[in-house]
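Re: that backbone. Tokens:
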């Protein structure tokens, strides 16, 4: 079955729910200017440390950070205690090397926001330095930048080009839900899918909805039959 990451964890119970459903990774969103499911650092650290202690290396317990400075990102990872980091903006030069030196076993995911075809070169540039590339629908170039959790779908034809252009695992995010998961896999052929708002109840504090999670996992299983 296509690996999947469930993002925007809101509680310890959600981490366990995602792991029980077969998630490859979970996302814990640190402070963000906008988007879904972000947490203060104290709450993010509580959830990350629980996830790592409970599930160990079997689960990528992933901090989403908007920081871009090498030391700032490393300090954020240290404060939160995650075993993976997802960098949602383009980091400064040397950030990846600094993270590798300070946290040799840390998994690094670089987000590339697919605004246009320039994302292909951005992904090519990041791929040699990270464990995975994650394609999302944020708009960092907008007057009010967004870095994920928008629920918007981007141009999957560009995402397919990126999958074909890089030699690292590529996760697809942005506007996914149980109804379009099979279509997304067929169109992009990613290593995995990453989903947040498509499984959550925004009217109820972005809570993870078990019925939607079940339907999503069933869709992924059907795509591989």
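Recovered sequence:
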């Amino acid at each position: 079955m296509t690996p999947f990451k469930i993002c925007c964890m809101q509680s310890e119970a959600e981490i366990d729910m995602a792991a029980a459903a077969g998630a490859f990774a979970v996302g814990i969103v640190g402070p963000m200017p906008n988007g879904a499911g972000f947490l203060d650092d104290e709450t993010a650290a509580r959830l990350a440390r629980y996830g790592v202690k409970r599930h160990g290396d079997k689960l990528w317990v992933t901090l989403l950070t908007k920081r871009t400075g090498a030391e700032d990102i490393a300090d954020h990872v240290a404060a939160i205690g995650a075993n993976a980091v997802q960098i949602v903006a383009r980091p400064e030069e040397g950030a990846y090397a600094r993270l590798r030196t300070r946290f040799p076993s840390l998994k690094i995911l670089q987000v590339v926001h697919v605004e246009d075809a320039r994302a292909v070169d951005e992904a090519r540039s990041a791929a040699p330095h990270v464990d995975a590339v994650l394609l999302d629908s944020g708009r960092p170039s907008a007057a009010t930048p967004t870095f994920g959790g928008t629920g918007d779908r981007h141009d999957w034809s560009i995402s397919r080009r990126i999958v074909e252009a890089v030699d690292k695992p590529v996760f697809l995010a942005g506007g996914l839900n149980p109804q379009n998961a099979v279509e997304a896999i067929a169109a992009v052929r990613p290593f995995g899918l990453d989903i947040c708002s498509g499984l959550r109840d925004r009217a109820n504090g972005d809570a993870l909805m078990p019925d939607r999670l079940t339907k999503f996992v069933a869709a992924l299983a059907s795509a591989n039959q």
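Residues 74 and 127 are 19 Å apart (CA to CA). Helices lie at 12-20, 41-55, 70-80, 95-102, 118-126, 156-165, 181-188, 210-223.
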